[in-house]
Queue: 3 jobs
Job 1
Amino acid sequence: MKIHKITLPQQQCVIEHDNRTSLLETLENNGIFHEYQCRSGYCGSCRVKLRQGKVSYTELPLAFLQQDEILLCCCRVESDLEIEF
């Protein structure tokens, strides 16, 4: 399984993510906590800015997203990312 680097400039850290869990869970497992509600792509509470990289979704989320936003709870990481809370 491919491991991607997730850069968080505001937190001054880089973590690794392998898509075995959600990106939200990976962040939590690394002591980085972000707001969430549904964990299913419905509410949009876990929305963050995507500064660099690519994600996909198994099912399109129902939450409205700008072109530079992703949902931590349900995106699938396709490349190294830089995200901003």
Job 2
Amino acid sequence: MITFIGGIALLLVGYFLYGSYIEKNFQIEPDRKTPAEVLRDGFDFVPMNKATNSLIELLNIAGTGPIFGPIMGALYGPVAYIWIVVGCIFAGAVHDYMIGMISLRNNGAHLPELAERYLGKSVKHVVNIFAMLLLMLVSTVFVVTPASLIADLTPGWLSVPVAIILIFIYYLISTILPIDKAMGKVYPWFGAALILSTVGIGAMMIFTQGGNLPNLTAATLQSFHPNGTPIFPALFFTISCGAISGFHATQAPMVSRTITDEREGRFTFYGMMIAEGVIAMIWAAASMALFDGQTLADMIAEGTPSVVVNAVSYSLLGSVIGTVAILGVIVLPISSGLSGFRSLRGIVADYLHIKQDNLRKILMVTIPLFIISYILTQVNFDILWRYFNWANQVTAVISLMVSTRYLYLKGRNYLVTLIPGSFMLYAVMVYILSEPIGFRMGLTTITYILGAVLSAIVLAVFLYTGKQQRDKLSPDAKLINDQLPIEVLAQM
């Protein structure tokens, strides 16, 4: 239990200490007008208060990731705690803060537009493909997972296919509403359900299972996965939303369009990622305390980790309160799926130059996306999760490189994003080389070496082009809203 309590304490300390440093390094300007004020349109650009923005950000980024991921990550044993704590403080929260604030400084721009501005025009197409692929996969996952939870909760009368259709209907209605109506009115209730269920699970686990909570020691600093799966790189893809997730880079710009003061950024972006880390710690610990590795693996193999969610909730809280806790879990993927489709619509519309200024144009983009997603719901969950994980972490690498270039061009400490970005770059290289969804090379010495060589090449090109870009900028080459001149980037 010491490791569990200590991990949560470190997450909180990380928010106050490292979060403050990241904010100082970014150099906020409290008096600067924000996109919510300057570009207010009553649909996406709508000023909202700090509490609402924070809840929207938390529910947007959370989904089932910080629950399903840690449940599966618990198969590796207490070493999962390290990745959640270290990854969250030094990678995930930094990633979320930087993209949220850079988007805020660039009129609420989505990741592909930021990639074009800071990495070069040709990169935009690659990022668009990855962002659209990721959002389609994650939105589909966040249809399937709540549908399975709902079906488990209502056996005999509400099947998974019916639940999927009902969720799509809710998404369609909410996608076409203004953000303050679709999210601002509903999410405080969703947030209350999430907080109560999380606190309930955490408290009961400490009081009833404290003695069963495994601690991180020299003896437990190894992989306990029953299938013998090595820690690297699998753990860093299994637990993504609880440590670092590229999906968050598609959500932060949505909230950057509703913030009215740059001082809110640390709590809204960095702080909500820390909150997600706490959720991840609770579910990883509960899974380890209640089940041995093989039992946990067998339960997950039955379908999705929703089986484990039900077992944990009922075991710790009883049937009535446990059902309430499951409802709190269900709102996570539903809220993230909604925001995922909303972001996907925006990115596709921007890419195809379809202005979203009336219902016909909104539906023209939205309906085809829902049809594709519905087809994908028929694919095995495990396959979807694997492709989602890889696309997710590739997007995280791109986001960290955008952040690194931003800090580099501003003459600030860019190592805070370059170091985690380089680590994740190596992880995604090894993953795609070794996994069945990639080149099927297996985890051999050659795979690790080739992954290192490819990563070094990508980093060398990235650093070289960054120097070229900086050399072409004059000392006063900054626009009033912090953007770099487009004509300079067009020459890259």
Job 3
Amino acid sequence: MARSRFLALTASTLVVFGLASCAPPAKEESSGQTESGVNAREATSAEDFGGMEGLIEAAKAEGELNVIALPPDWANYGEIISAFSEKYGIKVNSAQPDANSQDEINAANQQKGRSTAPDVFDLGQAIALANTSMFAPYKVATFDDIPDEFKDPDGTWVNDYGGYMSIGYDSSKVPEITGVNDLLKPEFRGKVALNGDPTTASAAANGVLMASIANGGSADDIAPGVDFFRRLNDAGNFLPVDPTPATVESGQTPVVIDWDYLNAAESKEIPTWKVFVPNDALVGGYYFQAINKDGPHPAAARLWQEFLYSDEGQNLYLKGLARPVRAEQMAEAGTVDKAAYDALPAVTGTPVLPTNDQSTKNAEFLGANWASAVG
């Protein structure tokens, strides 16, 4: 919830990476050919650079990395970016932290061939799977550590971190929440916010799925979730405000439907903030990491992936209360940050993890029905 990158599309096609008509033309991208003769753009592993040392050398020669839609308070990306930059001496250009997943794809298409285009993506499931032709396959050194269900077999995309859908709320302003349908009560009038537009935002789409399961639906049937938000809106309880730390801390959005790691982060600022994860509607989800095949810094993009999936990078996600994809394997190997691992919000029940096909089908349903439900 602390990240507004998954907001509904607004004027993003004009503002992402300074795309207004008065913006000066950006410098053209490099060819991807390194001084050592390695074609970084075609590299599918560090071995294509002769090993990690060669990859580091090529990435340092590029000197920069472009990321997009990574607010510093989302999954600890602020510290992750700083750690990567300091470790390798590479400048990280972080654009549009408030952008959403679709904005990332728009920026890559509109800035193709320019030095300002994003090098890497961090996307929700539906948007990622709809745009795999834009990704460059790459297998990090820890690729075999990652369970098969969390990666494309060629490394075209790999899940990086995830969590469970939750309801965060200020217990000093609303009653205790013990079920999703509590939000329909009169005490919640004008108080319930959803993180983003579910037609473009993974967090919001999974919030609708959580409501669907709580009302007899399933990963194959998200319609009851849309109906739940229709009733929430008709009751005057739905608050059409995109939640941020500022809206939470000011009391403007006292109830927020979002990932557990984002809601849990607010507990550090608001002592009365609580997080409810429904065990009868437990929805899990992971974000998708991928390399832009046309990005201007192909070696730096691949080094970024190596860093994110290393023990160091995964533990930094964990520090932000996100659940890194290699957490279980690292716990078994004794390389996980145990204190951070033990601090994750407790969950019970059998989680629903939508398949790629289910996510795509639900996205189509939301695109056709969401606006009329809450409009």
